[in-house]
Each structure stands twice: as structure tokens, then as C-alpha cells.
Hints:
The complex is a heterodimer.
Chain A: E1 23-34, E2 37-48, E3 52-56, H1 63-70, E4 78-83, E5 86-89, H2 96-105, E6 106-109, H3 121-133, H4 137-150, H5 166-178, E7 184-188, H6 196-211, E8 215-219, H7 223-228, E9 232-237, E10 240-246, H8 247-252, H9 257-267
Parallel strand pairs in A: 3-8, 3-9, 6-7, 7-8
Antiparallel strand pairs in A: 1-2, 1-4, 4-5, 9-10
Helix pairs in contact in A: 3-4, 3-5, 4-5, 5-6
Chain B: H1 3-10, H2 13-38, H3 43-58, H4 61-72, H5 81-105, H6 110-118, H7 123-138, H8 140-153, H9 165-176, H10 179-212
Helix pairs in contact in B: 1-9, 1-10, 2-3, 2-5, 2-8, 3-5, 4-5, 5-8, 8-10, 9-10
Amino acid sequence: xxxxxxxxxxxxxxxxxxxxxxxxxxxxxxxxxxxxxxxxxxxxxxxxxxxxxxxxxxxxxxxxxxxxxxxxxxxxxxxxxxxxxxxxxxxxxxxxxxxxxxxxxxxxxxxxxxxxxxxxxxxxxxxxxxxxxxxxxxxxxxxxxxxxxxxxxxxxxxxxxxxxxxxxxxxxxxxxxxxxxxxxxxxxxxxxxxxxxxxxxxxxxxxxxxxxxxxxxxxxxxxxxxxxxxxxxxxxxxxxxxxxxxxxxxxxxxxxxxxxxxxxxxxxx
Amino acid sequence: xxxxxxxxxxxxxxxxxxxxxxxxxxxxxxxxxxxxxxxxxxxxxxxxxxxxxxxxxxxxxxxxxxxxxxxxxxxxxxxxxxxxxxxxxxxxxxxxxxxxxxxxxxxxxxxxxxxxxxxxxxxxxxxxxxxxxxxxxxxxxxxxxxxxxxxxxxxxxxxxxxxxxxxxxxxxxxxxxxxxxxxxxxxxxxxxxxxxxxxxxxxxxxxxxxxxxx
Lengths: 269, 214
């Protein structure tokens, strides 16, 4: 079983191993408008390999919309997404091949888990491997069981998702995304639908994943995670990045008034 | 009422079941692509599906069965009475099942599509592995009640000479001049088939509901 001691979240920040590496994800001038409303306003962002970046900010600031632009669940109006060697212009419809290779490189974890309710936990993790990577049932199941053990849920393999707690379902969703061997993992408020205790078991899994060197972009309201686990924090408001930098600096000494206001509001509760 | 009457009407049960089952299977299967066409991005496919659905739902089943059996059957495409009634009722069922599926589709959480997309599942897999099983599960209660209705509509088969429950009842009533008991027996058989179908559907629904909590 995994250690649920909250103190493990307060470990010193990990080394920035990937600092010198070339960028693994680059967002260039990402802009998204709904009619006259500008949701994302010419956003630029670069992630190095192995980096963990937390995006925080008030509701409606465009955090989730940004994540959905990256894997084109909701393409931007204009701008470019570059993942490794793959460059995608968001303003034109991508080819099926581009879309598949983009989504194979970028795994996503949703706020509402989105497990497939009619399949066992094991099938949830194995099916995408078989359909997307062409793995055999046997190989896929082997990999699924490894990943389920890694998120502390080896014994849940034959259950249905409905028999698992929210925290367990989210850990299964993480295993399912990892099973496709993505280069980058996107987390869209992964603990927002969970009570604090169940959220913690998800955060511990994410922390372990961060330590293992996975490149992660995490939209979150968990300020402790942003400060202690991520390498960098981005604060968004009104479709723009208003503050960006090493986690401790941004969280403890924000420069802009808007960021100060936001952080004061979340810390004073 | 005699045992002869009872047995005579009873020999029609297999035909009633066969017509109902065959028409339902045909309709349930054709309903899926029809529903997909109805929701397609391609306007032409949408129009074809819509016209099909309107056409098959607004003309009485009896008329459709006559169209296939007497219309097509006389020369164009020689078909038996059984084939004619299965085709007629099956194609009507397809139109109705497409609408049942369309309703059920809205009950499936948008996150299911998003997760399939984010996992890069090919679209055949999204439909077959993810959406279709949930769709069939959600549409089970409506499908079952449609099937019970279809069982009753299957009596139309008797008008073109399929020897089902109604055909035999009609025949025996005319030859014995005892309409009331004979048709009462026929009614009893329809009830005896309907009730277990409804009960079975309820049980299956509850079992699946408990498992997936959807």
C-alpha cells in the first residue's frame, strides 16, 4: 500500500535534471477566441524534458482551455504546438496521422476521470494499448498490471470502476494514460473532484511520476503541489500568463498585483 | 373450449416468436448505422436517414408488409410471406431503434468521447469498444418495451398467411364458430410471452446498472 503521510508532500524540491535538455513542448502564439471573447491571448510556453510545470490562476483564466489546445481536444483559433519533431498549426485541421502521433505523445488526465464504466479496471488500461499501439492482449495486460501496481492498485484489476473510490479511479486514469508511453502528461485539475484525503493519494502518485522524470503540465488548485513538487509555476489570468518562474519564487514573492491578489486569496482561506 | 383449440392456437407460437425475433434483430442492427447517419456531419447522409425514419414511422406497418410481400413479392423479388413480414417490420424497427439509440446517446457522458480522443483510439474502436456497449445498455429499457410492442405487431404476419398465433386463432374461430374462447386463448399466449420479456429486460437492466452505475 502507498504511504498516505502528508509530510511526504513537503520533501525538498527535486533536482532540475532536464534543465539543459532541448524543449519537448513549445506553444507559440496560442490564441483562442469564442466570438468576441478572447480566451487565450497569444500565449507562449516552453517545457523542457523532465520538467514539471504547474498552472494556477482564477477560474475562467483559460488554464483548462490551454491544455485542451495542446492535444487538440479543443483546437486554438491560431498558433502552433510543437511536440518533439511534430509541429502542428492549430488554425488548420490536422491530418489523422498528425492527430494520432500528437495524442500518442501527450497523455491526458481529466478532472472527471472518464474511465470506461462498462470495462474492468484492467481492460480500461489494456484496451488503448491494443488499439493504439497494437500490443497483444497478453503484453498489454502485463504492462497494465505493472502500472496498476505502480499507482498502488494491483488488487483492483478485475473490479469495475464504479466499485473504486474517486481517488482510485483517478489513479487508474493515470495508469491508463501512462500505458501509451507518452512523452508528456497533461493533468486537468486532477484532484478538484476529490475530497482532500482522496486527492492526496492522487498527488502522491503524481509526485512519484514527477520524480521519475516525466514531463508534466498540471492545471491545479493545489497550492502545496505547485510550490513543492513542480519546478516552475505559471499564473494565468484573463487568457494571459501574468507571472512565471521557479515555483518558490512565484508562490512566495509574486511581482504583479493580479498575482499577489490571487495568491493572497487562496492562501488566506 | 377444448384441448384441440388450445393446441391448435399454440402451434402458431414458434412463428410469432420467429417473426418478432427476426424483425427485432434486423432492426436493432440496422438502427445503429442509421442513427450514425442521422447524426453524421455529411448533410446528404443526414437527409437520407431523416427521410427513411419519417417514411417508415408514418406509414402503418400493415401497409409496409403489403408493399414488400404483394408489391416486391409479385415478380420483382420473389419472397416468402415470412421474409416479407420480417423485412417490413424489421425496416420499421430500424427507424424506431435509430431514434431510441439517438436518445440514449445523449445519456452518455461527453467525457467518454473526450477520453477516447485523448487516448488516440481509432474511431472504429471508439464506436465499437466504448460507445456501442454503453449505448445498448442505456437503451435496453426502451428497446425491450419496443420489442413487446413488436410482438403484438407481428400479428400482421397472419394477414399474408404466416401461420402464427393470430392466423391459427382466426382459422380455428372460423371453423368452430367459437370466436370468444379461441381469441381469449390467443390473447393469453401473447400475454405469456410479453411478461417474461419485460421481466427479463428489467432484471438485465438492474444487473447492468448495479455493475457500471451509469
